[in-house]
Structures are given as structure tokens and as C-alpha cells.
Amino acid sequence: MKIALLGGGLAGLTCAWYLQQAGVAYDLFEADARPGGNLLSLNQPEGYLLEAGPNSLQLSPELAELFDELGLTDQVQDTAAVGQRRYVLRGGSYRELPGSPPALLASSFFSLKGKWRLLREFLKPAGAPNPDETVAAFFTRRFGSEIVDYAVNPFVAGIYAGDPAQLLLRHTFPQLAALEQAHGSVLRGLAKAGKGVGRRRVVTLQGGVQVLTDALAARLTHCHPGAPIAELARAPDGAYSFQAGGATQGPYTHLVLALPAYAAAPLLAGLFPAAAAALAAVHYPPMAVVYSAYERAAVAHPLEGFGALHPKAEGAYAAGSLWTSSLYPGRVPAGQVLFTTFVGGTQYEAAAQQPEADQKAAVHTELARFYGIAGAPTWQGRYYWPRSIPQFDAAIGPARASVEALRADGIVAVANWQAGVGVPDVVRHARTTAQALAAGAPAPAR
To answer: What are the boundaries of the signal sequence (predicted)?
Structure first.
């Protein structure tokens, strides 16, 4: 058995690491000179350490074990304690979002009607399973439109760059659908499931999250960066070969797709046209990440929290901002604050495609209005993703099913469109897939 991993982002690197640990022959090919994909940390000469992809990581057991295996445990850095506080724009100003149902009931964030709808959820019977139910439809049915507008919508835009009216519940939050069916009430199910379970630590790595993928790439013995793949072929005995690095590579008994769906689609088109068409339909909205630094004295807001999200109902320009300097003070020059602002996603695609200068100006104008900022930014920067996060809408099910059907042909997927968009999801799925391949068992489904 010899395996080719196509794509050198976190998923491909993690899967290759565990194949290497198991003694399985493999080659990993990555088109870019820098492996790592969406885990991208940027050191600026002005003294800023920026994140273009994930800004922090939930420390799952699998991720903690991977840190330990790579010798990175002593580089784990906890997010500042103020990061437990999250804010949402409502009525033109930022208000702290309650962190639990009891806190929500005690706060003034939601109206009495909204709180009443929340309490009534305990008494609502489970609805009939609906595989096509959207996130917005589910939460509206269970909790009402106010919860959707001012809690679900900003959360989905901030984490998934998505629109809850388009994302399907069974792909985005499958555990909530299961809780409703098992317990009748989602809140009752969450209460039972949460007993004895602590909140995961939110961390980063000294030097940025890219330290993780750099460490993986440095320890792999058969990692080939700067080697785009083309001309996938299959021999009569089922073995695969392709062009990469200026030469024919192969034969390989298995292919592991660690590529974005839009990059995997053209490779599969010649051999598996139906699967290629399904993967090509997966939507990746554009996203611009705008960084704005100010002198601390110029910002009236205390910035004691993780950041602030913008519900679509508020009509803001950006999806929201992280208060980077509050979370990781050592990443900005002394006496300054830094906002990491997200412009784009499914609900903000037009803004994401504007010229860089226009985006920077619009972000500054909005920050100045909401945070009471006097004067111009000390520094601004931007990173642009033409395609950001795969959307778990009506197209993702056919894409996953099409690749599931290719297992018999020796093809499995570990990319985030299959595993889930969170770093812990990707690490867990890549690890279990590698272990299954090493054991000669069918690779696990998501």
C-alpha cells in the first residue's frame, strides 16, 4: 500500500503525520511553496503578529495530543481571561451577549418575548426530522426570530462566514438535531449532555497558529511543496498516477483528498465526472481580513472581551471584529490596540470584492463610529481570501456523498468540507482516517 495525499493544509499534513507514525508509505503534494493552507500567521515589520485564518484554537484532546507529539506544548498560549466575554451589535451599540441560558434570562439583551420563547422551548415537542431544514428555520421554530437575528445570525456569520437561512442544520449543527429527537427539548438535551463537561480552553501558539503546520511539515519525510498536481490517471489494476513536480508520480493504491472542493474537482473530472461536478458546486464566499491599529488613548471603548459580531439586521459594513490586542497583548506595539475585522462571507460578498483602499476606509469609518475612535489608524493591513470557508448548504450533501461513493475506488477525503471547518474537527478526522487506512479498514465517514 502506498498513499498519495493531495493538498498540504492542516488536514493533509495531519493525515500524513499519522500515516508516517504508523509506518505507511506515502507522498504528500502541495501546490504552494508554503504548506499550511488556511493556517497563516503574518509577522509585519511594524511589529504586528497577525492571523489571516483561524485566530485561536479550541484545545480538543486530539489537538492537545498532537501538540505534545510535535513538542509544541510549551508554546501553547492561553487567550486572555477577558476573551470569555463576547459582544453583539444591537441598536447601534455593543452589548454583551449572555454566555448561557440562565444568564440570558437575567440580562436585558433580549426582550421579554424573546425570553418567553426561550423558556417555552423546554415544553415544545420534537418536530419531524427534516434533512433539508436550515439553521435559521430550526432556531426560529424552536426559539423564535429574535434569537435567530441577534444570536444565531452573527455567530454563523462570524464562525462559518455563512447565512443561517442557507446552511443546513444536519451538516452545520448535527448534534442539535440529534438532541431535539432524543430529548424533545434542545435546552434539556444540552443540559444533560453538558453535565460534568467543562468548556474547552481557547488557545494559540507563540508565534501564531501557523507554528502547528510548520512543525508538521518539518517532521514529514515525504512532503513535496511547490508541486501542483495535474493529469490524474488510473491503471487497469486500479493504481493511480499523476503529474507533479515535473515528473510522473505513482503508482498509488489510495488517494487522500486534502484539497478544497474547487481544487479537487478538476483533478477528478476525467475519471469521476459526477463527483467532480458535485465538488465544483460547493460554495466558498470571498473574505477580506482588515487589520487596523490605533493608539490606545484614541479608542474610547474599553475592549474588554473577545470581540464584537454584527447581526445582518443591523446593516453594518463588516461581519464583526476581534479585539486582537485584548486577547494577545504581546502581538502589537506597546500602547496600541489592534482590530481584526472580517469583511465578506455569504452575507457580505459585495463588500468583500471591493478595492482594498475602499475596504480599509470603510472599516475605519465603522470602527470610529462604534468604538469612539479619534483620528486615523496608526497602521492598516489586509489579507484577501478569494475563497474562504466552504458553505454547508444544499450543495455540501451531494459533494460528500459523491466522495463517499469513491471509497471503493481507494479515494477518501479529509479536507474541511468533509471533516468540518473547525481545527479540532479537521485534526480528529485526519487522524482517524490515517489510522483506518493504516489498519486496512474503510476510512471513517464524518
So the answer is: none
Q: Name the residue type at position 280.
A: A
- pLDDT tens, residue by residue, 98-128: 877 777 778 889 999 999 998 899 988 999 9
CATH code for 101-193?
1.10.3110.10
For residue 363, which of 411, 406, 313, 322 has the smallest C-alpha distance? 322
pTM of full prediction above 0.85: yes
β-pair partners for 384: 288
DSSP string computed for 241-252:
EEEETTEEEEEE
CA quadruple 135, 137, 143, 148: dihedral sign = positive
According to DSSP, residue 390 is labeled -
3-state secondary structure of 14: helix
More reliable by pLDDT, 368 or 246: 368
How would you list the strands of the sheet with 307-309, edge to edge? Answer: 93-96, 86-90, 307-309, 320-323, 336-344, 287-295, 379-385
CATH superfamily of domain region 2-46+209-283+391-439? FAD/NAD(P)-binding domain (3.50.50.60)
- The C-alpha cell at 185 is 427539548
